[in-house]
Amino acid sequence: MTENKWVPVSDASADVLVTHVPPKGIMDRMALGFHIGSEWVKDIMETMKPRLLLCGHVHEDPGYAVHGKTTVVNCSIGRKGKYTLVDVDRKNDKIEVNMVV
Question: For labeling, which of 50, 68, 75, 86 is most exposed (least CB within 10 Å)?
């Protein structure tokens, strides 16, 4: 018999969740103004409630936003020499995001 190695999302937990696409409606706005994020990623984020969600994909909307207890960082700056630095201070329960553009 094969053991199931998948854990239902409702039973999973994480402090940091890394996805390619952002959650729907959060850091996912295209240049023409419409949102292309994932409902599935948003559902997982709202179920797991990670402290930090790192994503990319939408180069037009880099930055960060707080959704509930989750800091969502779209770090897709997309040019050489540009990056995002995330500092997690567990002792003081703080997350600092610096975009170097």
Answer: 68
pLDDT digits over 34-45, tens only? Answer: 999 999 999 999
Dihedral Cα 91, 87, 42, 76, nearest 10 deg: 180
- Cα torsion 88, 94, 95, 100 to 10°: value is -100
Lookup: tokens for 47: 């179920």
SS3 74: strand
Neighbour-count burial of 78, counting CB atoms closer than 10 A to its CB (0-12 exposed, 13-18 middle, 19+ buried): exposed
DSSP-derived pairing of the beta strands 83-89 and 94-100 = antiparallel
The 8-class DSSP code of residue 60 comes to T
Domain ranges of the chain: 13-100
Structure tokens at 66: 């707080």
